[in-house]
Amino acid sequence: MLSYQHAFHAGNHADVIKHLCWIGVINHLKKKNKPFTLFDTHSGAGEYQLDHAMSAKNKEYESGVSKVAQLSPQSSLLNHYHTLIQTYFDKGMYPGSPMLSANLVREMDNVHLMELHPAEFEKLNHVIFSQQHAAKVGGSCHVHQRDGFEGIKALTPPQPNRGAVLIDPPYERIQEYTDVSVTVKSVLQRWQQGQIVIWYPLLSARADKKSQACSAMIASLVELGIPCFQAELTVIENTEEAGMYGSGVLVLNPPWQLDVQLNDALQEVAPHLGDNTAFHLTWLVNDN
Ligand SMILES: C[S@@+](CC[C@H](N)C(=O)[O-])C[C@H]1O[C@@H](n2cnc3c(N)ncnc32)[C@H](O)[C@@H]1O
């Protein structure tokens, strides 16, 4: 059953770390004048109205993107993120990962957006279609109503084989942690150079089983021996009852210098996201 709706969480601290990382990956792919393909396995609705009842319920964006919007960033990746969100933020909106991809790609690039939830898929399809109609987004965007774990296996490797995958499941079911590791292994068997960004929650002892499943997911991917780092942003103290106290991204085959750029951006923004925030980045398999 699909019950997760990203509108409740749009623009929160988890979106900040995830979207910074995804923008960094896309920017690097754009350095070469050669086409690439982006895949978003769990796309969500594409963009969010922050005064909508769902986003306004807990106003999670207030401790995330609202803080970013108030800054005059020094680091280049944070500055780029700030510029991209400002256009939306001025209209009371926040762009999801599909709109970040659609706004950043060039005419020669491809984007595959997958979303299983029928209502979220309809919203995504409408947003992408209307932006394409108004010629506001670049590249060729394909919207699929399908299971992202099945879809990414069917659609990879892309031709030509440059590109990246964002995997951002709701993790409502514990099985999703295993689904991620099985899927990523299968994709990398056929597409060794694919750059893969996996978002994951950091959960307190209250959700011990899911927390263990998350650690097992990361450990099984590290065993592949492919270059990878994890970057984690914690926003509250990890007490037993804290629930989600932060989140992280595991990046496989990361582009050159993404670690430095992400580190600079998050070291700069983290102190503005709360009194108890911390950020660290760790290489788990280093290719040096
Ligand atoms: C965390 S949200 C995605 C947010 C989006 N990536 C962003 O950053 O803006 C997760 C989405 O995955 C969808 N979903 C859940 N299971 C799925 C599956 N097996 N395949 C594709 N989409 C799925 C949910 O309906 C939800 O919209």
From TrEMBL:
Keywords attached to this entry: Methyltransferase, RNA-binding, rRNA processing, S-adenosyl-L-methionine, Transferase
rRNA processing among keywords: yes
Residues flagged as site, Interaction with substrate rRNA: 4
Catalytic residues of the enzyme: 168 (proton acceptor)
GO MF annotation: an example: RNA binding
InterPro entries hit by this protein: RlmJ, SAM-dependent_MTases_sf
A Pfam family that the UniProt record links to this protein: RsmJ
Binding site for S-adenosyl-L-methionine: 19, 42, 97, 115, 147-148, 168
Stretch forming the signal peptide: none
One GO cellular component term noted in the UniProt record for this chain: cytosol
EC number, as in UniProt: 2.1.1.266
Catalytic activity: adenosine(2030) in 23S rRNA + S-adenosyl-L-methionine = N(6)-methyladenosine(2030) in 23S rRNA + S-adenosyl-L-homocysteine + H(+)
Subunit and interaction comment: Monomer.
Chain's role: Specifically methylates the adenine in position 2030 of 23S rRNA.
Family: Belongs to the RlmJ family.
Alphabetized PANTHER family for the sequence: RIBOSOMAL RNA LARGE SUBUNIT METHYLTRANSFERASE J
Name of the molecule in the record: Ribosomal RNA large subunit methyltransferase J
Organism: Alteromonas australica
Lineage of the organism: Bacteria, Pseudomonadati, Pseudomonadota, Gammaproteobacteria, Alteromonadales
